[in-house]
Specification:
It is a single chain. The protein has 432 residues and is mostly beta strands. The chain has two domains: 254 residues, Outer membrane protein (Lipocalin); 164 residues, Porin (Beta Barrel). The chain is built from four helices and 23 strands. It has a twelve-stranded antiparallel beta barrel. It has an eight-stranded antiparallel barrel with strand order 15-16-17-18-19-20-22-23. The longest helix has 21 residues. It is globular. The termini are far apart. The mean pLDDT is 88.
């Protein structure tokens, strides 16, 4: 397959149209990225398959939606090759309300899909260097680019119950020369903020290149998902329990700053941050905070050392209590949290051989300092502020989990000191 001038021109036109029209027409423009290391501590973080993504999703007031997706796929286990895809699709929801609490919608979709050698290795390795991860050098599976049409539709039925919604969604899409997909999901949504549910995803390969075998077998079948959409920050996470594969994304609505400020007081808060331990390993933090009650997840994954054959996936799920005695208007607001829960230690060799997969009890304490007034940065009905934190976690009976992996003794220590920065977002549901 050769990269023809026509295909190159098509790719250039798609990129130029997307980058020009999205900001000009949109009332919402979410630009984000996704990766398979966003595990929430579940799965095995085998770091193959769908490895990297950049997206832009624009919508206008009447519901018209334009979605740009650039994705990188790698296979480091079987054929040591990579490929990339780029798609640009347009959809519009036709909505019908037979009852004030019942909404039915049908959204046809049409677009263009490019697949092959799009040169994403440089972009992926730039991200890896920023994150301090191993760079990935693989040959391209395709020596050119396929240009194809994308067709699809989704339909949804949802019942509104106060500030909550429950519903079902069916999606189907096809790229006749590449693959077809079908999806059925059930969901709950609260306060136009959080959505969670369960679904089943089916995929049908029409290209049959060996490089696609790994990725196609990972994100299919039964899955669990959640999304979190504030006026500014948008995140999503999915796990396929049968395969252990997970995928997460985060993005920012760059047009959100024009929204009127409606925040008065917090009904629910979320926390997202990045911490480091004294050995230099990075840990991501996600939490829910409701009137002092805290539900928190710490997770860390990746190779035990650069170039190592062993990969770790560490997850800590805990509950606790947070005290913050200072006035919300104070510029520095100290806080203290106590936590207890369960820690999962997972160690995999050569992407497939599980050496350790165990649960241990964990307890911890964290001291934090809020930086700036709680309502100093407001977008829509949400207030954003940063918090510096130092945490100490004690893992019970961790020394019984020994392995020959390089630096495993530093990862699997009974006492772990963490420090980092988190973004807390306070939500005012009365201002929706």
């Amino acid at each position: 397959m050769h990269r023809t001038p026509t295909v190159r021109s098509l790719a250039l036109v798609i990129i130029l149209l997307a980058s020009t029209l999205l900001p000009l027409l949109a009332t919402s423009l979410v630009i984000g990225t996704g990766n398979d290391w966003i595990t929430m501590g579940f799965g095995n973080n085998e770091d193959d398959g769908h490895s990297f993504a950049v997206s832009a999703h624009a919508t206008v007031d009447n519901g018209l939606s334009l979605l740009f997706d650039l994705d990188g796929y790698t296979d480091q286990r079987e054929v040591d090759l990579r490929y990339s895809t780029l798609s640009l699709s347009l959809s519009y929801p036709f909505t019908y309300r037979p009852h004030p609490s019942l909404e039915l919608s049908l959204s046809p979709l049409v677009g263009a899909h490019l697949a092959g050698d799009l040169g994403l290795q440089t972009l992926q390795n730039l991200l890896h260097r920023i994150l301090g991860r191993d760079e990935v050098f693989l040959g391209e599976a395709y020596d050119g680019v396929k240009g194809m049409v994308l067709l699809g539709a989704s339909t949804q039925a949802a019942v509104t119950l106060g500030s909550h919604r429950v519903g079902a969604r069916v999606e189907a899409a096809t790229v006749p020369l590449w693959e077809s997909q079908g999806d059925l999901s059930l969901f709950w949504q609260g306060w136009d903020l959080i959505r969670a549910g369960i679904g089943y995803h089916a995929r049908f390969d029409h290209d049959h290149h060996p490089v696609r075998t790994l990725e196609l077998t990972q994100n299919r079948g039964l899955y669990l998902f959640s999304t979190y959409h504030t006026p500014l920050l948008h995140t999503a996470w999915t796990i396929w329990p049968e395969t252990g594969f997970s995928w997460g994304s985060f993005g920012f609505d760059v047009l959100a700053f024009g929204q009127p400020k409606r925040f008065v007081e917090a009904d629910l808060s979320t926390v997202n941050g990045i911490y480091y331990d004294t050995a230099g390993y990075q840990t991501r933090v996600s939490a829910l905070l409701y009137k002092g009650f805290l539900v928190q997840v710490h997770y860390s994954n990746g190779p035990t050392a650069k170039g190592a054959a062993f990969r770790r996936n560490i997850g800590t799920w805990s509950v606790g209590w947070q005290w913050e005695p200072a006035n919300p208007s104070a510029l520095l607001r100290p806080s203290l949290s106590v936590l207890a829960g369960v820690k999962r230690l997972n160690l995999v060799e050569n992407y497939s051989t599980v050496r350790i997969d165990a649960l241990r009890a964990v307890a911890g304490v964290e001291a934090g300092v809020g930086l700036g007034r709680k309502d100093g940065w407001v977008v829509g009905n949400s207030a954003y502020h940063f918090r510096f934190g130092v945490a100490v976690h004690y893992t019970f009976a961790s020394t019984s989990l020994s392995a020959p992996a390089l630096h495993w003794d530093q990862i699997n220590r009974p006492l772990t000191l963490l420090f980092g920065l988190a973004l807390q977002i306070d939500h005012d549901f009365d201002a929706l």
